[in-house]
Each structure stands twice: as structure tokens, then as C-alpha cells.
Amino acid sequence: MGASNTWMRASMSQSGVTGGKRKVRRVLIVDDHPIVRQGLRRVMENEEDLMVCGEAETARDARAAIKELNPDAVIADISLKQGDGIELVRDVRAHYPQLPILVLSMHDETIYAERMLSAGANGYIMKQAASEQFLVSLRRVLDGGIYVSEAVGNNMIQKFAAGGSYISANPIDRLSNRELQILHMIGKGMSTRETAHSLNLSIKTVESHRQRIKRKLNLNTGTQLVQYAVNWFTGREGGANPFGARDASAPAASTTAPSTTAAPTAAAPSTAASTPATSATATSAPAASTTATQTRGGS
Fold first, then answer.
1. Which pLDDT belongs to residue 168?
2. Are the C-beta atoms of residues 105 and 111 closer than 8 Å to each other?
3. CA distance 86 to 64
4. Which of 47, 129, 212, 241 would give a disulfide with 253, using CB separation of 3.0 to 4.6 Å?
5. Model confidence over 269-281: pLDDT tens digits?
6. Domains of the chain (ranges, CATH numbers)
């Protein structure tokens, strides 16, 4: 492993042999909040068939860790310290067609779940879900299935049944993935320059996206756009510390998967429908440290 890598390899506290039971599957965690990574590790360390093989907090580190560790599955958030979860999922799917990807995020599933499935994810679950439900979702994607909540699954079925006649009542659904990212960053208080730097875009490109967002949301001025973005962002922000305890009291996302088709290829995964959804966000996890932690171990 190169000295420049900031991702961490997890120590193998679990045996690679499970006494004839289920094969131990190795999981890479990609999240920019250390407390979330620690919580996920605690949830999985008591499971005979699961172990954390490494952690990363940026998209770049995640790509390096996947190449180095060859995990059986990746758990990834949408918002990362550097880079973007949507782009990461799309890139990983293109280079590793059979690698299961579970998106675990505070962002509203009604807006992001279908987008992430279309990008190549195998499942989407909210961080407010109970730890038991998280384990169900992880094992589902590891076994080659698709996992979304019952509400998301029903919405996808309705869109599929309606065909091209389905019209969403949510104006956010009109935005592209990139426009959604920029709206989210405006709501967080980021300037155009900061947004451009974070997304590796030019300031002119970000300004063009802002103009398109205003048109799609029927807003006339930059001030109206900022106010809309702030209200939208703060209105959807919330949620307790995910998986802080084994018996977390946070409400579980209703997560009965609508289908269990095989893992997706480079294209969008097969589900009842994969029409892109739209965005909402929430990130109340504590501030993350600048680098992911790792402890080296041998098998």
C-alpha cells in the first residue's frame, strides 16, 4: 500500500473460518464521518459472516482501497469529504461490474434512492434505519439482490405502471444529478467558487448550472435561489447518530425489497423501475476527521 493512501485497512478481529457456516464477506466502508464508520464496524463485528476489511472517507481513497483490498461489498455515503457518492458509484460500477454497492445515507430516499440505483448501486438505506434492518440490506446486496424501502419500491412500481405519463409533484425531480449536487451545496452555504472546487468544475460551469436550476424551479433571482436552497436543505436535515448502539431507537426505514434480481452490470440495476429520482439531504453526523483510519492486519 502506497504511503500516500489515507484509507485504512482493518485488522482482522474475526476468523476467516466460520465453522462450516456462511462464508465471511469482507466489507469496505466509505463515509467521511468517523463516528459512522465506528458504528458500522460495531454492528458488523458481532456477525459471523461479515467483517470490515477497510475504511475510506473520500472518493479517491475509496477507489484505491477497492483496488488494494478487493472487498466483497462496498458501503458508501452520498456526501463525501472530497468527491461525490453518485460519481463514485457510477465509476465503481463501470470498473467492477459485479461488486455489490449499498448506499447508506442521511439523504432523503424518496429523492436519492432511484438516482443511486440508476447510477449502479444495488441498494439504498437511510442512516436512521435500525441496525437489524441495515444487516438485512447488506446481506441482500451481497446475495445478489436489490434493496430499497417498501415506500421507494412502491413509488418505482407506480412510475413503471404509469409509463411516460407519470409526472412528479416535487419540483426537485426536474433537476439533474449535477444540479441536485449544486443545490445541496448552495443550501449548505457554499459559494460558487467553493462548489466549483469541490466538484472539480469551472466557476462558469457552476454558474450555468445555477441558471438552469432557477429556470427549472421557477425562480427569478440568485437571492431566491439561495433562499430556496437553504429552506430545502434545512427542512430535510436531521436524524440521530446512526448505529450508535446495537439496539438503536431511530426509526427503521421500511425496507422490504421489491425485487431480488442479480447484481447490476455497468448499466442501472434491474428493479421494478429505475426512473431517476431526486434529491433531499440531511447530514447531522459529527464533523469528520481529515483522514480515514486503518489498522493493518494479516489473514
1. 67
2. no
3. 17
4. 129
5. 444 333 443 333 3
6. 1-169+240-299 (3.40.50.2300), 171-235 (1.10.10.10)
Q: How far apart are CA 257 and CA 201, in angstroms?
A: 36
Q: What value does the CA radius of gyration of the chain take, rounded to a whole number of Å?
A: 19
| H-run or E-run covering 103 | strand 101-105
Helix axis angle, 131-142 to 34-45, nearest 10°: 80
Cα dihedral 228, 231, 233, 236 sign: negative
Strands 50-56 and 101-105: unpaired
CA 164 to chain centre: 27
* Res 73: pLDDT: 97
265: left (phi over 0), alpha (psi -120 to 50) or beta: beta
Residue with the three cell numbers 475509496: 62
What rounded mean pLDDT belongs to the chain? 76
Rounded to 5 degrees, what are φ and ψ at 117?
-65, -40
Given a contact cutoff of 8 angstroms between Cβ atoms, the answer to whether 183 and 215 are in contact is no
Each residue of 57-102: pLDDT tens digit? 988 999 999 999 999 999 999 878 776 788 899 999 999 999 999 9
Cα(141)–Cα(259) distance, integer angstroms? 11
Give SS3 for 57.
Answer: coil
Choose among 182, 40, 28: nearest CA to 101: 28
Beta bridge partners of 126: 105
For the stretch 123-176, pLDDT in tens is 999 998 999 999 999 999 999 999 998 888 877 777 777 776 666 667 888 888
Q: Is 238 left (phi over 0), alpha (psi -120 to 50) or beta?
A: left
